[in-house]
Amino acid sequence: MSEHLFLRACRRETVERTPIWMMRQAGRYLPAYRAVRAKASFLELCRNPALATEVTLQPIDEFGFDASILFSDILITLPPMGIDVIFPDAGPKIPTPVRTSEAIADVKVFDPELELPYVMEAIKQIKTGLAGRVPLIGFAGAPLTMLTYIVEGGGSKDYPHTKKLLYGAPKDAHALLDKIAHNCAAFLEAQVRAGADCVQLFDSWGGIVSPGDFREYPLRYAKQVIQLLRSSKTFSERPVPIIYFVNGCAPYLDDYASSGADVLGVDWRVGIDEVRRRVGDGVALQGNLDPGALFASPAEIRTRVADILARAGTRGHIFNLGHGVLPETNPEHVRAMVTAVKELSARS
Amino acid sequence: MSEHLFLRACRRETVERTPIWMMRQAGRYLPAYRAVRAKASFLELCRNPALATEVTLQPIDEFGFDASILFSDILITLPPMGIDVIFPDAGPKIPTPVRTSEAIADVKVFDPELELPYVMEAIKQIKTGLAGRVPLIGFAGAPLTMLTYIVEGGGSKDYPHTKKLLYGAPKDAHALLDKIAHNCAAFLEAQVRAGADCVQLFDSWGGIVSPGDFREYPLRYAKQVIQLLRSSKTFSERPVPIIYFVNGCAPYLDDYASSGADVLGVDWRVGIDEVRRRVGDGVALQGNLDPGALFASPAEIRTRVADILARAGTRGHIFNLGHGVLPETNPEHVRAMVTAVKELSARS
User: How far is the CA of B2 from the CAs of B10, B23, B134, B227, in angstroms?
Assistant: First the structure.
């Protein structure tokens, strides 16, 4: 498995073509996924290893992606932290947001194998189902992104409570981020022990701050997670690649590579060639087609794929969307993207 | 009035200190504004020149900002374009979004002096009220930003309908953007005729696309608006400065200066020194404190103001927030920011 195309690209080794997977590839754009979802709630899917396995494998079977990613949600770690969360269709809600020193003191550091056994069981079943075809990516929300949900009580447009905490009560913010970072590292480590071949740290809202605050908050705690992972017993035995993805990374390119990750995720708003120039050659890059570009015609999708492949070069590139695939996407356009990447990146 | 500090800074002339104003400075964070809003709806405020004048002047009287900005909303141009809009507290809604060639063909090009006379009347009353104290900025939504509202039917997280139109039906997208650009230019020209001393083009959602699509859509039509303005009779007689603001400009810095604007707005996610390096010395820059930084202590606000002043330098800088002030902001913290800018930027 360590010789799989995707894992070799993560290590910047020479590859016969550019591998591709897609954030949220097991999701609502896929009729087979919607059929399973018609029978079970989102949370039931996350908590039922057999169902999680079924939907994780669907896009591999359907499109031939080069990596699978555990079907789950970054917020499933909230209940074991002592924080309730619900998943209505309009987006996750945390009925009692954490906004005070007292509430932060009550946030729990937990044992993922005890508290989230169904995740580890799903990983084992997925690995069995994959039978070595492609690697399995485990994941977690990065500390700053987790903080925004916990503090805002859900999604947000302007993140006022987050910013009140970060800038108005920085000691509290650091205390909360430190706890989340420990939980995040322990959770990812447990996923690797269970069989994950790679882990991705999602900083979906790492891009809401100034460059100085990026160093002080999202980057600092992503680094902490990555250092905890690298120094763990699990990684000393099985050092899988670590991907760090910041949505809206363009303002932070001078610092991004210092995260310590093997692979940096690149959203679609920035040229992947500019990212390469600014982060240097020490890391692989993953990205970066606009998820909305899948609304274009298959011919236009192919043109855009070719442009990204040309900008990214042949070494250390994993093709992906710049963020999760949109639910309204036509699956045949996904297929056009996968075909274009495989054909256009093949080295003769 | 052409010698006012703010206007001289827009032209990159030497100034005795850095001028400051604040996006959404007439707004909900201000108790005096909320008192007026308790008596009238948002739309009534926009449409009543006396009330619009009252709230426009409030922050000038209260904090001594160096420029005023017309109290209005970018979406008030929708009804004369034949598109209904409502303004509930949760954010604007367009009950019948424009998504087809037929609907785009029906969008009207209108005469702003006939259709929006209350805006021109408000400008005249504000100018009288200001009595030359500070300049008045007029504004409009930039074409791509207006398109997102019209097409999505309101705000959006992922802009799926916008991207379906831009990438799936580019001819329709260009037709709609061209109409909006003509309306936008005519509206800004009318505001200048009525007395506005400067105009700002708000591309709040210009930052949702790839660099190539930025050139093809938001930048292209902002340029068109700016060229229409510069070649207008009004501007040949009274060439006021033009500000172009893209929220999330960091990925586009190599192209941003080509907009043709005198001043480029800079959001808070990027270092204003990096922006200066990348856009060159031909334009002034406006920004770029994180609106959320006003939740910090007055001492921390002063530190952050000093940092931005140092990065921006003394020539061609207008201090502003990186986006609109948040409604939850403490007015005394706004005062701390204004005081810090005035004191720390004073040239001896």
Answer: 11, 22, 10, 22
Tell me the pTM.
0.96
Cβ contacts below 8 Å, chain A against chain B, sum to: 110
- Quickly tell me which residue has 């044992």 as its tokens: A111
Tokens coding B16: 């005795």
Question: pLDDT digit of tens for each residue in chain A (348 aa)?
Answer: 558 999 999 999 999 999 999 999 999 999 999 999 999 999 999 999 999 999 999 999 999 999 999 999 999 999 999 999 999 988 999 999 999 999 999 999 999 999 999 999 999 999 999 999 999 999 999 999 999 999 999 999 999 999 999 999 999 999 999 999 999 999 999 999 999 999 999 999 999 999 999 999 999 999 999 999 999 999 999 999 999 999 999 999 999 999 999 999 999 999 999 999 999 999 999 999 999 999 999 999 999 999 999 999 999 999 999 999 999 999 999 999 999 999 999 986
Closest listed residue to residue A262, CA positions, set A278, A284, A245: A284
Interface test with A, best of B254, B274, B290 (most A CBs within 10 A): B290
CA B140, CA B270: separation in Å to the nearest integer?
Answer: 24
| Alpha helix (H) residue ranges in chain B | 5-10, 31-37, 42-47, 49-63, 101-106, 112-115, 117-130, 143-152, 160-163, 170-194, 211-214, 220-230, 233-237, 253-256, 272-279, 298-312, 331-344
Distance CA A260, CA A192 (A): 18
Residue bearing tokens 């500070």 = B134
Tokens 């890391």 sit on residue: A283
CA dist A77 → A73, A115, A184, B57 (Å): 8, 9, 8, 49
Kindly provide the ipTM of the predicted complex, given to two decimals. Answer: 0.94
Angle between helices A331-344 and A298-312 (to 10 degrees): 40
- For the beta sheet containing B198-203, the strands, ordered from the edge strand earlier in sequence to the opposite edge, are B68-69, B136-141, B198-203, B242-246, B263-265, B284-289, B317-321
Chain position carrying tokens 């991207």: B163
Taken in order of first residue, the domains within chain A and their CATH numbers are: 5-344 (3.20.20.210)
- Amino acid B77 reads T
Instruction: Indicate the helix (H) or strand (E) that contains A181.
Output: helix A170-194
Q: Is B269 on the interface with A (CB under 8 A)?
A: yes
- Tell me the one-letter amino acid at B76: I
CB atoms closer than 10 angstroms to residue A343: 12
Q: Are strands B284-289 and B317-321 parallel, antiparallel or unpaired?
A: parallel
Q: Does the CB of A282 have a partner CB in chain B at under 8 Å?
A: no
Specify the 3-state DSSP secondary structure of B204.
coil
Decide the pairing of beta strands A198-203 and A317-321. Answer: unpaired
Query: For residues A308 and A97, what is the distance between their CA atoms, to the nearest angstrom?
Result: 40
SS3 A137: strand
Catalytic residue (choose from B12, B37, B269, B278): B37
Which are the contacts of B125, defined by CB distance < 8 A and separation ≥ 6? Answer: B49, B50, B52, B53
3-class secondary-structure state, position B78:
coil
SS3 call for A240: coil
Angstrom CA distances, A15 to A10, A12, A344, B253, stand at 10, 8, 14, 33
The partner residue sitting opposite B293, judged by closest CB among A167, A268, A296, is A167
Is B152 near chain A, with CB under 8 Å? Answer: no
CA–CA dist B319, B132 (Å, integer): 21
Report the DSSP beta bridge partners of residue A137: A69, A198
Report the residue from B163, B250, B326 with minimal CB separation from A295.
Answer: B163
Residues 6+ apart with CB under 8 A from B14: B8, B314, B315
Residue A270 has its nearest CB partner, among B208, B211, B307, at B211
